[in-house]
Write a structure and sequence with these properties.
The complex is a heterodimer of chains A (113) and B (114).
Chain A (H helix, E strand, L loop, with lengths): L3 E4 L2 E4 L5 E7 L5 E8 L3 E10 L2 E4 L6 E3 L9 E3 L8 E8 L8 E2 L3 E5 L1
Chain B lengths: L3 E3 L4 E4 L4 E7 L6 E7 L6 E7 L2 E5 L2 E6 L4 E6 L8 E8 L10 E2 L3 E6 L1
Parallel strand pairs in B: 2-11
Antiparallel strand pairs in B: 1-3, 3-8, 4-5, 4-9, 6-7, 7-8, 9-10, 9-11
The chains are: A mainly beta (113), B mainly beta (114).
Chain lengths: 113, 114
Amino acid sequence: DGGITQSPKYLFRKEGQNVTLSCEQNLNHDAMYWYRQDPGQGLRLIYYSQIVNDFQKGDIAEGYSVSREKKESFPLTVTSAQKNPTAFYLCASSHPGLVYEQYFGPGTRLTVT
Amino acid sequence: QKEVEQDPGPLSVPEGAIVSLNCTYSNSAFQYFMWYRQYSRKGPELLMYTYSSGNKEDGRFTAQVDKSSKYISLFIRDSQPSDSATYLCAMGGTPRGGGNKLTFGTGTQLKVEL
């Protein structure tokens, strides 16, 4: 079955630690996205990538970093510089010209204490 | 002011009711309008998308876009308990115009009761 996988589903970290969230897709999509979802705030774009080895900052990129070394993978690192990292993180993918048709993974809930 | 405004609800309706969910927006560059459904602790799934103004129907779901009023709606007919979820509107411009990202509403929580 084609789809997007995110792991782990729940992640707990201590403040001051970097943590990397995994996102893998087998939909053969060129474009991939990372969103953050907080109660009452909707989805906010962190980073997106339209092609391998290229990515752009979204609306709230500060404190995050990404890499896109393979078409199938777009890992997100939440660094210690991110002031409020506890959130639900969603990865999505689409064909580059079909940004309106994004397919989402199941999400990772990150809790930092 | 947010670019996209959506009433968070919660909205509670009896089974079989017609549900109306709405979003307003301020950016005239938006050309694509989407509705996503998100069950609790899951990723959103695309329900429908519409390009520019007009209506689109898919089974029990109808999406309407009124660009002159900057207002979009999703209607759910014969609502079922399985429709209980959060509904997110999303919008984007044309890819050529730099519309390679979407702007989401905050979501409306819907509960359909037996």
